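Sequence only, no structure available. Ideas?
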Amino acid sequence: MYEKYRRDEKKYKLTVLKFTEKKEGISSVKHLFSAALCGFPSHGPKREPPFLAALLSRYGALAYNNNKLAICEKTLHDERSNTGMTRISLPTGFIYDVTDLYGDSCVTPAEVEAFAPTWCKSHRTIEKMRLTGVADGHLSKDGIPEKVRFFRLPYIDDAGINTPDRLTYIESFAAAACRRVDAVVFYGVGGSYLGGKVLFDAHCGAAWNLLPHEERQGRPQIFFAGNNADPRSLADLLRLFKSKSARNPGYTVMNVIVSKSGTTIEPMTGYMVMAEKLHAAGITNETVAVTAPAAGEGETLLHRLAREAGWPVFFIPDGIGGRFSVFSEAALLLGAFIGFPVRDFLAGARAMDDACRSDDIMQNPALMNAVLKFLAAKNHGRVTEVFMPYAECLKALSEWYVQLLAESLGKRFDRDGRQVNYGRTPIPAVGTTDMHAQTQEHQDGPQDKVVQFVVLKHWPDDLAVPSTYVAETGLAPFCGLRLSDIMAAACAANGTALAEDNRPSAVFELPELNAFHLGELMYMLCLSVAYEGELANVDAFDQPGVEIYKRHLKKTLKDLGKR
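Reply:
I predicted one. Tokens follow.
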């Protein structure tokens, strides 16, 4: 396994840290600087590890001579000397690598320097927003001034949103429910669904609901509904519950409705149908509401229904849009049900928030990301962003990011009322799957994209390919490699192919996939769109376009009801 390349941030030199191939007995750390030679035993010209070639091909000439690898010093120096800083490395191990986005690849240091007055102002504005919650000109969907409060979500304190008492209550509620509930269905759409789905997929994986109860450590099966009005998916889920209940008469379902307003069509209709059908089938079920906390005159419909029925209530605070709500009770409750370390998740977000306080763009990954993506679109026509994690369990992360980017930045008017039709189009993808589906267009289609990779440095459950077919020429290169090697090789090869055609890409590298680093990444992306909103002079926290179609849909549904 290789632990990707790392640059010494002071000397700007490339290091290849580690090559480990247990089947071949290679375990020592190999450091490659400049033109140094590195012995690589048992691999001749036809057996060089494909991940090694993919990783290093762009950094110099590869020469296998008596099983030795040479890196051409001049090639390395020429490539790096013009880029200055090409990666931001945080003390946590989080890395943002912009080698193929910043420099001669796309956005130049001169462009970033010339743009400094704008991004410096944006940073100051975000710092003020952190302190006051005030975003100039921001109005709620009802047209009244509204504070922006997602900056407070990572912090656990009595004066904040996620207080110690609330977190303790979430954890204790979930622990008690796990002792009596067999399945939990979360009804939500948009951010009310996608944030929790990211946590579930990253923590539980694909087979959670198929595992025996004891292998889930007594935790319930988790299902998602109400993210579409599709009748088939709801009917399938109901059929499953009827089957389970027939074999277990005490089978219990908990319905969790996640909706700030309580009038969102998909989750409310999904819940209403399911609750009625469960009741009719004699299946024990409970209801929990996650909604806005306002009482009295500003009380939401869902909050009132919960109060009148005596349902437990959890909160999505005012000033937290759905796409930013993953750090609120909207997703933390789900995390508590599955044993996801919600406090570590918030700690990762806090660490990223702290890192992004710096006004040095070379030390602030969220600001760097916003500036480079903005300039790539504005100056180079790179108006589409492909978000491509190399991990199947992060597919939902791509989908979550699509909403975050599209809903936050796709705006007709800027803050001065000028029609700008700003936005960058997000495309969800997953490596390696979409290398066989989308990469043809990424490589040969319009040069309008930045491809954003997400990679994991260490995998907890890595597997090696057996040497069953080592004698077969077409399969021998894979034999003995770990699947993580192949994933990393594929990502490196994808980046290399794009770079050779001057198609920009960047890499977010996580040391491993855990709650802390997931919190880092997701908060950085939230903060990035906040920065980019300031760069583009648009309100990143409203969604007027969404409200337009909602009005038309509600009118159409009223007309249907009159027939």
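Confidence is low (pLDDT under 50) at residues 1-84.
Hope that gets you unstuck.
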